[in-house]
Amino acid sequence: QVQLVESGGGLVQAGGSLRLSCAASGRTFSAYAMGWFRQAPGKEREFVAAISRSGGNTYYADSVKARFTISRDNAKNTVYLQMNSLKPDDTAVYYCAAARSWGRVTHMDGYDYWGQGTQVTVSS
Description:
Distance between the termini: 40 Å
Mean pLDDT: 96
Shape: globular
């Protein structure tokens, strides 16, 4: 079983930046593809970004391309989401997730383990 814990959320003004971290337990972090999703109040959880096991491939939702960057440090069992040029529409709870295999990375059912989320609030 994989345990995931997000951190780094908070309050930031529009146009600002924030970096989220997701720390994973276990010795096999590098065996998992990782993704970030977000959920705003009253809305469905939506895909944000994904990264392959080695970090060589990334995939982003159109809404965050050129603003967000997903990365991972397998030696630290950690995946990151660097968020720049933040907008009020980015306000949501952000979740990290782990997948045993690459595929359906833009869908929630493509992932096997989930963190509890961290709140990001972007003020206007």
